[in-house]
Amino acid sequence: MGLGQHAEIEASYLTAEELRVAASLLYNAYHDDLFFQQAFGRQGYGQKLRAALREELAELWQHKQKLVGFYQTDVLVAVACIVDKDYPQGESRYWYWRLKMALGTGWSPTRHWMEREDELKRMLPGDDYWLLQLIAVHPQHQQQGIGGQVLSSLLQLLSESDSQGLAVFVSQPQHEKLFLRKGFRAMEKVALGDVTGQLMYFDAARGEGIAQTP
Q1: Where are the beta strands (DSSP E) in the chain?
Q2: Which of 14, 45, 52, 161 has the most C-beta neighbours closer than 10 Å?
Q3: To 5 degrees, how large is the angle CA 103–CA 108–CA 113?
C-alpha cells in the first residue's frame, strides 16, 4: 500500500526482496558515521557495519516495524526505518538478536548499540513514541530535496497513528537543520563515548499542519 506521493517520489513499505538493496543504501549512508566508527573500530569496520545493518533490517522486518522505501520511477532512492514503542530496545533486546549481532560485529559493538538506545530512551518524554532508527538517501539522489520529502511522508504517517511523537538521534549539523525545518525540536545533547549528537523530537500533538509541508 502506498504511503503517499510528493512530486516524483512515491513511498511504500519495503518488500522482503528489497531488503538487500535497502541495506546497501544504509551502508553508504552510515559508512562515515562517527558513532559506528567508534563502536565498531577500524579493524574489519566495513564488514562489521554491513553485518549490523543486515541483522537490524532482518529483525525489524520480522517484528513488522515500519520499513519505508521511497521510489523515483520505480527505483529505490531512499529508505527509512522506524521502530515503535513495542519494539525492544537497549537492554530489552532479545537474546537471539544479541547473539547474532555479536557474531557479526563482536560483543563490544553490540553493547555500544544497546547503550545508545538506552540513553535515548532515558531522555525521551514518555514511552509512546516512534524512533527513526535508520535513514538513507541514495548518493546520486542527494541535494535534490528528497530528504525533506522523506520526512514529510514519515510525519504524515505519524499523524495517522496514535503515537505521540517521532524521535531521532542526529550527529551531523547539516542534518539537524533539516529536521528543525520540518518541525522537530532539539531536546538534549547526547554524549556517546567520544561522539556527541543531538536528540531531536517531533511532537505529534503540536505538529498539525507541519506534517504536510513538502
Answers
A1: 2-6, 9-13, 66-72, 75-83, 130-137, 165-170, 185-192, 195-203
A2: 52
A3: 90
Contacts of 60 (CB under 8 A, 6+ apart): 67, 81, 83, 87, 133
| CA distances for 83 relative to 67, 133, 197, angstroms | 9, 7, 20
Other beta carbons less than 10 A from residue 152's beta carbon: 20
Domain that holds residue 123: 2-212
Return the closest-CA partner of residue 57 out of 107, 101, 106.
Answer: 101
Q: CATH no. for residue 75?
A: 3.40.630.30
Q: How many other CB atoms sit within 10 Å of the CB of residue 25? A: 24
CA dihedral 139, 196, 124, 28 (to 10 degrees): 20
CA distances from 40 to 46, 91, 108, 182 (A): 9, 19, 8, 31
Tell me if the pTM is above 0.70. Answer: yes
**Where residue 3 falls among pLDDT bands split at 50, 70, 90?**
low
Segment 103-113, tens digit of pLDDT = 888 898 888 88
Q: Measured over all CA atoms, what is the biggest interatomic distance in the chain, rounded to whole angstroms?
A: 47
User: In the chain, how many domains are there?
Assistant: 1
Residue % of the chain over a pLDDT of 90: 46
